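Course assignment 3, question 2. Fill in each field.
Student: A.L.
Task: Predict the tertiary structure for the chain below.
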Amino acid sequence: MDRIFSGFLLSVLLLFQNHGVYGAPPQPRGTLCRTRPTDLVFIIDSSRSVRPNEFEKVKVFMSQVIEALDVGLNATRVGVINYASAVKSEFSLKTYQTKASLLQAVRKIEPLSTGTMTGLAIQYAINRAFSDSEGARVRSPGINKVAIVVTDGRPQDGVKDVSTRAKAAGIEIFAIGVGRVDKNTLRQIASEPLDDHVDYVESYSVIEKLTHKFQEAFCVVSDLCATGDHDCEQICVSTPGSYKCACKEGFTLNSDGKTCSACSGGGGAALDLVFLIDGSKSVRPENFELVKKFINQIVDSLEVSDTLAHVGLVQYSSSVRQEFPLGRHNNKKDIKTAVKRMAYMEKGTMTGQALKYLVDNSFAVSNGARPGVPKVGIVFTDGRSQDYITDASKKAKELGFRMFAVGVGNAVEDELREIASEPVAEHYFYTADFKAINKIGKKLQKKICVEEDPCECKAIVKFQTKVEDLIKSLQQKLEAVTKRIAALENKIV
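Answer field:
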């Protein structure tokens, strides 16, 4: 009898445990990033082509990177080399040991305003900045040696050989180019892999957007859930150096370990989605191809069919051109083929005119939109609009369209926020580099889905009733056992 009762009790406990796992999945938790000990030297171009206000932007960028570091004698040490025709050490790795003193020193740096001797500056870093006498530590697996080179022009000396020597000495080099910089020079300077170590921005006004990349580069323990670098559809749960996915109550995790299905077995939902794509001259042909891949990345996540997701595509520059309306293509293959064939328009950036077209035409029933089906617009732009966007942006949201705004390079974040639906933080995205838009695509894949109500399955009600009955039965058995024990004790006495 006792063995049967123990087995019954174990079954009930396991039942409660399973209910805890599926009924209330673990929630994401945030952790602070700890930066690894690093000897970091900024090598900053302040030649004549860098205007004073632009140089201030570089100082802001350096300060933001430093803000995210664990600064100290046994943590990260920071030095700054300022160069033009000559090289000036602003401060060495041993000069400051606190974050506050470093930030104050950065604010005092002044531009030199002459030529561009980038090779000479890198040679100085090898000979002096990363020397023991200047505060550099002995090379070891536990100490990283990193140089961040920021330049906006073609160097007046060679950089290939000296950069090779620096990398052979164990210095990891990041190369940031601005404006009309010679991109081949950046590739010669940077460490491998080049995709991780070369960055380009159109102007100094957006260089601080690269801050997040370097915060991650120096990070030892990062919460991938908090940074959004994961593939979970609903809930991301952090684990040491990794993550796992979970689902909301009423949903189950699919075999891919990432996506979730409603417990009623429901699939996708009906959705009318229109892409509004900036095809202005500033995008450039090679980046326009990346935009096409971004669109098809989103399409891959949809359940496209006659009854579920429909996709439309509009391109704009100085004028607006509908590439294909909602409902013309009813499978992913045809949509992706049409996207690949889209020709680049070039010219201006009339975002306001394009938004008005979206409101007046793209989501009209006469243009393929379905009554009663949720409407989603994804606006992609790389620059400031040449016309007003306020009225059309406001009307789109008043009509119930869910608007996402994606900006790259010189896109104006205030405009992106104005386009985006509420809550704005969940509906607008920005990156300084076209190469990073695939990461935005991953985030959008999770957000554009029409959220279904957690299923109100009869099975859940039955489950809860079963648990309550088991608890009552357990209580009755416990009372009976208590009485038996009391009776035995009385006999012993």
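Instructor remarks: The first strand starts at residue 34 and ends at 35. Confidence is low (pLDDT under 50) at residues 1-32, 263-267, 450-462.
Grade: pending
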